[in-house]
Design a protein that fits this description.
Length: 311
């Protein structure tokens, strides 16, 4: 009882626009409330792809129109997305708890995730963000700001940022404290705001941390019992989308490694989830990870219905 769960919410739990998001978070809250009622202690991590894109785009467009508007660093855009999504999730969860007579509190932690300045990802920025530019405009911004641009499939030049591995969670103590207090905590939104340490101090850096990897790191450092990754599919499959597709129920770390090596999981979607699951399970004893759909969250946790990754 009182098992501690870190739940990672995928893009389908949030939608793409503010209106869609307000509706979607209510659905997400309805799937989480039964777990809270059963006494599980929960930290929620969410994605932010479309949201941080929208915020970043708004500032870039405003800056193009009016040079009095300052351009907004990507790390700051991530912080804004944590606030905006956290507000919606927090509000939806609070209203859902109220409706069901639960007195559980909800809080959102603006979260900084520590990355290593020497992470090889910094030599190979690969995650495209923001507007498309002409080659000349891209070159000018490269010179002015030191950003890296790449040609994106014939559509123009686009900024790329690195995607480093999460090393530690700065606010882990606060998150742990809130969870021990019985709060549902929303943390590490969008994978967290990437920061690096220099001479003991923390500085932000424009990068994107994979939210499933950040969730796994958080689950590890707060010593959670399980990592629950909720996405658009009820299970992980081998031969996904092929005639011989097979949904997986319970797999060991060894099997997960074999399937990864055989290329069953798409990079950028299912692969980081399986990698995150493996990392969490192998980082301690008695830990398990589940990958399933939002709709199936309760069944997954209470009746092992989903893809379970265990040692
Ligand atoms: P999220 O927003 O939840 O992170 P993603 O789109 O990044 O979602 O990743 C989940 C998607 O990965 C699934 O909806 C599915 O289309 C795709 N996928 C790729 N390979 C697999 C696989 N082997 N088994 C199941 N789903 C897979
Ligand atoms: Mg994803």
């Amino acid at each position: 009882m009182n098992k501690q769960l870190v739940i990672a919410l995928g893009g389908n739990a949030l939608g793409n626009t503010p209106d869609e998001q307000k509706q979607a978070v209510l659905t997400a809250a309805n799937h989480i409330v039964s777990l809270v009622r059963d006494g599980y202690k929960i930290v929620i991590v969410h994605g932010n792809g479309p949201q941080v894109g929208m915020i970043n785009l708004a500032f870039e467009l405003a800056y193009q129109q009016n040079s009095n508007v300052s351009s907004m660093p990507f790390a700051e855009c991530c912080g804004m997305s944590q606030g905006y999504i956290g507000f919606h999730l927090q509000n939806a969860l609070q209203n859902t708890f109220l409706k069901q007579g639960l007195s559980t509190h909800v809080s959102t932690a603006i979260t900084q995730v520590i990355v290593d300045q020497n992470d090889p990802a910094f030599q190979h920025p690969a995650k495209p963000v923001g507007l498309f530019y002409s080659e000349e405009a891209a070159k000018a911004i490269e010179k002015e700001k030191g950003y890296t641009f790449v040609e994106d499939s014939g559509r123009g030049f686009r900024r790329v940022v690195p995607s480093p591995e999460p090393v530690d969670i700065k606010e882990k103590g606060t998150i742990r404290c809130l969870m021990d207090n019985g709060d549902v905590v929303i943390a590490c939104g969008g994978g967290g705001i990437p920061v690096y340490r220099e001479d003991g101090f923390l500085y932000s850096v424009d990068a994107v941390i994979d939210k499933d990897k950040a969730a796994a790191k958080l689950a590890d450092v707060i010593n959670a019992d399980a990592l629950i990754i909720l996405t658009a599919v009820p299970r992980v499959a081998v031969n996904f989308g092929k005639p011989d597709q097979k949904w997986l129920e319970r797999i060991t770390i060894e099997e997960a490694h074999r399937y990864m090596a055989e290329g069953h999981f798409a990079p950028g979607s299912m692969l980081p989830k399986v990698e995150a699951a493996v990392k969490f399970v192998t980082s301690g004893t008695g830990r398990e990870a589940i990958i399933t759909s939002l709709e199936n969250a309760y069944q997954a946790v209470t009746a092992a219905n989903g893809t379970i990754i265990c040692s």
